[in-house]
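Key result, reporting period 2: structure in, sequence out.
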């Protein structure tokens, strides 16, 4: 349940690691655009460059370029920098200022239980950065510095959102206030999770060594069509109910991708193509993918041609973000007892 005390506000963030894929598009970008267009919430979207340096050293020029590229991708996909606030995390200092307070609210034990910390730090935790350990406190600050009420994320971020709620609740309790909202996660459904084109049990990933396993948002029409034609499937035709996709991860993935792009349910796709051979279905899917994605890739390329314009959009976004974040940070510091 949303607390009526807080403005309905969506916040989400994405690491600017470049190389956007169809998985990013259907899993995150398109959902963010839909939330913007629904008009029910104010929408704030952020490239989290400060998070991008927690796990490993990033080449400075590559990081700058990736931040611009992800920004261009979001705009190309339909984020309107006027209707939404679109900005880069490090350009709004309030995030790190609030993160410090949260570093003092969150407990070592809570952080140590984060599965992403355990996975990323692995056996070599002694050598992981302090920033990687504190990552979820910065993420909580990203969200709560806007008093965001709803946060769309993938399943893998659910635990970090629970931690965000714990931090908000402990802060409110420790200081005897009702200041931070208990944010609602909006978890991505299985149908929008795009899997690897050659192995339907793995997520589509920009870091997979084989380019055939994914569709990049920068791929041209021929490349998109070829990758779909060569995607792995099984010898059976499309079933007539989604139940018939059980145990057929590659078949299910292609149906899900079709559904996501066509904005219908997987059940409707199956009903429409029941009995059809995958060879046939892939032709229809390739046409659909090219139709939906070609304009995004050309728009992205056009935007990337004018970097000064992207930088201007991000500076303006940061200014607008600060208008919300700055008074919330001020009140937080006041609650904590920092002289203002
Ligand atoms: N941790 C998120 C991810 O890797 C990115 C992120 C950072 C984020 N801050 C956030 C997502 C705030 C939602 C809200 O996907």
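The corresponding designed sequence is given below.
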């Amino acid at each position: 349940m949303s607390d009526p005390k807080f403005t309905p506000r969506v916040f989400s963030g994405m690491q600017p690691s470049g190389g956007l894929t169809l998985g990013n598009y259907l899993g995150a970008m398109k959902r963010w655009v839909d939330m913007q267009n629904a008009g029910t919430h104010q929408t704030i979207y952020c490239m989290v460059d400060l998070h991008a340096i927690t796990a490993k050293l990033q080449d400075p020029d590559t990081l700058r370029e990736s931040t611009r590229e992800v920004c261009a991708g979001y705009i190309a996909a339909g984020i309107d920098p006027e209707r939404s606030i679109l900005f880069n995390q490090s350009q709004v200092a309030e995030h790190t200022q609030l993160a410090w307070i949260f570093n003092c609210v969150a407990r070592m034990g809570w952080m140590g239980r984060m599965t992403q910390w355990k996975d990323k730090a692995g056996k070599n935790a002694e050598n992981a950065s302090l920033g990687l350990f504190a990552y979820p406190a910065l993420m909580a600050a990203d969200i709560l510095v806007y008093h965001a009420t709803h946060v769309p994320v993938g399943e893998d971020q659910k635990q970090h959102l629970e931690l965000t709620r714990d931090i908000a609740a402990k802060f409110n309790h420790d200081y005897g206030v009702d200041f931070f909202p208990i944010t609602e996660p909006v978890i991505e459904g299985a149908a929008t999770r795009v899997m690897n084109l050659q192995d339907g049990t793995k997520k589509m990933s920009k870091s997979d060594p084989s380019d055939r396993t994914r569709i990049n948002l920068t791929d041209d029409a021929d490349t998109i069509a070829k990758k779909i034609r060569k995607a792995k499937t099984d010898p059976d035709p499309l079933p007539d109910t989604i139940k018939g996709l059980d145990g057929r991860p590659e078949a299910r993935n292609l149906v899900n991708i079709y559904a996501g792009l066509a904005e219908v349910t997987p059940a409707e796709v199956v009903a429409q193509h029941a009995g059809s051979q995958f060879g046939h279905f892939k032709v229809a899917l390739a046409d659909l993918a090219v139709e939906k994605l070609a304009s995004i890739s050309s728009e992205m390329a056009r935007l990337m041609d004018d970097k000064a314009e992207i930088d201007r959009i991000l500076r303006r976004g940061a200014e607008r973000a600060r208008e919300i974040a700055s008074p919330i940070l001020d009140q937080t510091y006041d609650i904590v007892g920092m002289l203002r």
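The mean pLDDT is 95. Residues 248 and 269 are 16 Å apart (CA to CA). This case is discussed further under Risks and Mitigation.
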